[in-house]
Inverse folding.
């Protein structure tokens, strides 16, 4: 009996030692993403709005350096903007955006993950999609004054691996710390920050 117990203990200790000595193999993924966005602008003084529905898409690079932890960078084309209540005015803002996020995950072939980190962007185009009153003098109907955008992104997602291919779906919230209009004392707006939510589908391929 004692010999059996000793043998079991030796086996367990050996397995534990092997597990500890087994090195984690880093993972690198490249892929594409795309989906729908809902956007508005946090104006102060308040401008009453609905979410403007639009699209986004781009490239994804993910590097997992150790178990449960990695980084993810993206290069995206993102449509933002706002839609005022009563269907009187809508403006779309098109950005090139670069998020750089920490990637935390749980699981092996099927994973739940969280992405969180900073982002920067640059406005490449703006368009009045709707203007029911062409003679309007509202402050928010002028051209955007600050094209550079920066802020934070955070999201939750689910993925599964099939033969080095990753298919995933996630939701993400983006909040800009920068203002699209000048906010000096003499200016009308104190704040004019982009707010954006996104639902994305992605396909990634493991390259190592």
């Amino acid at each position: 009996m004692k010999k059996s117990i000793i043998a079991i203990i030796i086996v367990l200790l050996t397995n534990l030692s092997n597990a500890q000595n087994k090195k984690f193999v880093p993972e690198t993924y490249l892929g594409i993403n795309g989906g729908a966005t809902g956007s508005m602008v946090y104006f102060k003084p308040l401008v009453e709005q609905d979410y403007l529905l639009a699209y986004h898409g781009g490239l994804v690079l993910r590097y997992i350096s150790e178990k449960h932890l990695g980084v993810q960078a993206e290069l995206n084309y993102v449509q933002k903007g706002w839609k005022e209540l009563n269907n009187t005015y809508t403006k779309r803002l098109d950005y090139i955006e670069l998020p750089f996020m920490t990637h935390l995950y749980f699981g092996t072939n099927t994973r739940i993950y969280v992405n969180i980190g900073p982002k920067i962007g640059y406005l490449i185009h703006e368009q009045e999609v709707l203007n029911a009153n062409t003679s309007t003098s509202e402050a928010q109907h002028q051209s955007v004054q600050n094209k550079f955008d920066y802020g934070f992104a955070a999201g939750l997602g689910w993925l599964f691996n099939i033969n080095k291919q990753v298919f995933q779906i996630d939701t993400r919230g983006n909040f800009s710390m920068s203002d699209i209009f000048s906010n000096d004392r003499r200016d009308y707006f104190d704040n004019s920050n982009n707010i954006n939510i996104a639902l994305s589908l992605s396909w990634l391929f493991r390259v190592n």
In short: The longest helix spans residues 2-21. The first strand starts at residue 27 and ends at 44. The mean pLDDT is 90.
